[in-house]
Amino acid sequence: MWTRSPHVAEVLGVSQEQLEHILGRLPATEGGKPAAPKEALKKVLRQSRRPFSARIFRELAERVSL
User: Fold this and answer.
1) Which residues of 25-62 are buried (b: 16+ CB within 10 A; e: fewer)?
2) Per-residue pLDDT of the chain (66 residues; tens, 9 = 90+)
């Protein structure tokens, strides 16, 4: 889910800049993805005041190309 697609920020309800700022403050793997992806998602959702739900993953699957 943590791709460079602009759709990720859109689905999560934050700007691309906000997403990069939040993720930039968290520990990351060598590939640049969050070391704790679930916790990273929860932090982003807190910022956007969106609830954690399966709908988010459905929206991402519909919009983000792997």
Assistant:
1) eeeeeeeeebeeeeebbeebbeebeeeeeeebeebbee
2) 888 888 999 999 999 999 999 999 999 998 889 999 999 999 999 999 999 999 999 999 998 876
